[in-house]
Amino acid sequence: MLFNKMKKNIFKSILNINNGYLKVSFPDNSELFFGDSKSKLSGNIAIKNWGALTQIFNSGSIGFAEAYMDQKIDSKDISKVLHIMALNRNLNNKIMYGKKIHRYINFIKHLFKANTITGSKNNISYHYDMGNDFYSLWLDKSMTYSSAIFDAKNSNLNDAQINKYQSLCNLTKINADTNICEIGCGWGGFAEYAAKSFGAKITGITLSQEQANFAKKRMYKKGLNELVDIQIIDYRDLKKKFDRIISIEMFEAVGEKYWPIFFSKLKSNLNNNGLIGMQLISIKNELYNNYRNNSDFIQKYIFPGGFLPSVDALTKVTSDCGLKIFYEKSFSEDYAKTLSIWRSNFIKNWSNMPKNKKYDLKFKNMWEYYLAYCEAGFRSKNTNVHQITLKSLEP
């Protein structure tokens, strides 16, 4: 009893909330309150098991996520809690990263998931080969797994995803004579749009067998198989040159060590006067150093080998590789809305998930937490999403 009281007092001493209001309840029915009670943003955490505090003290934000996955922590709306924590991230380094030994262990595990050619295939398979049925239950009908762009005319998710594709096509000036390579083609949404709308020829590459199978069938059904060629190949093994290279939220899976290889490869596979168009996620510049020297929940449980650039780091590496970068648009609020819709669809359709040991309650909590965690990042602007274009600095 005394030990539990001590844990609660430690928790009280290390959690700092300046933005938002947070109520925390404990197994002994006591409560603690943090932040401004008049704030429009409020959340609640119910600590169901004292062991959750030990997990948090040891492993920081990863421990918090694990306690939520194990039902030792609950919340009426975990996205609001994570939004509050994201807004107060710089005030909570002690609780964010946990004890050094646990940080070190998680970081080393992350390093062992490096994106070598073999490692990349394993990392992509881990996330994307869970089954197309799983993703189809909560993505929109275009099977697009990246941020949409909403506007007054595009209020539903499917239309907003098409709007995103249109934006990239406009930025890269795609037409019927354009020969395109899409790196990380997913389930074929962009390839279908570019082929159908412009008559462009597209080579779509992926490392996911499930995605490739789906995308190939999709192109045959749409009568686009003569325009779209889907291949299972690593970007490092590309041989041909293209007028345009497109990459939509694939760069996050490259890994910092391989960024120079990635951009140098894109440049070498680009025809004269060619253009690269990318949609990618970044982390705030001031958070980058802590982020790159630690491991987080997403790297441990969702995207092994994943790593986000900061804008400064991205600008430097592209310049070092002889590319000029243009930040065309940023739309973090659109990603937050996209993620909110995905999470709502996921929860609503959970009962229709395939019934097996893999899709258990812990898996459900993990994915619900993941979608809420990402939404909080974009709402707080700790992370952002951009559409950029790049071209060679050489004439």
Question: What is the structure about, briefly put?
Answer:
The chain is an alpha/beta fold and 395 residues long. The chain has helices spanning 2-14, 51-69, 78-87, 93-97, 100-111, 117-128, 132-136, 157-171, 189-198, 209-221, 259-268, 288-292, 297-301, 311-320, 332-348, 361-379, and strands spanning 21-25, 31-35, 42-47, 73-74, 179-183, 201-206, 228-232, 242-248, 270-283, 323-330, 383-392. Helix 15 (332-348) runs antiparallel to helix 16 (361-379).
Tell me what the structure shows.
- This protein is of the alpha/beta class and 395 residues long.
- It has 2 domains: 2-98; 115-392, Vaccinia Virus protein VP39 (Rossmann fold).
- The chain is built from 16 helices and 11 strands.
- The chain has helices at residues 2-14, 51-69, 78-87, 93-97, 100-111, 117-128, 132-136, 157-171, 189-198, 209-221, 259-268, 288-292, 297-301, 311-320, 332-348, 361-379; strands at 21-25, 31-35, 42-47, 73-74, 179-183, 201-206, 228-232, 242-248, 270-283, 323-330, 383-392.
- The strands form 2 sheets. It has a 7-stranded mixed beta sheet with strand order 7-6-5-8-9-11-10, with helices on both faces. Strands 2-1-3-4 form a 4-stranded mixed beta sheet.
- Strand 1 (21-25) and strand 2 (31-35) form a beta hairpin.
- Helix 2 crosses helix 16 (361-379), helix 3 (78-87) crosses helix 16 and helix 8 crosses helix 9.
- The longest helix has 19 residues, at 51-69.
- The model has no long low-confidence stretch (mean pLDDT 90).
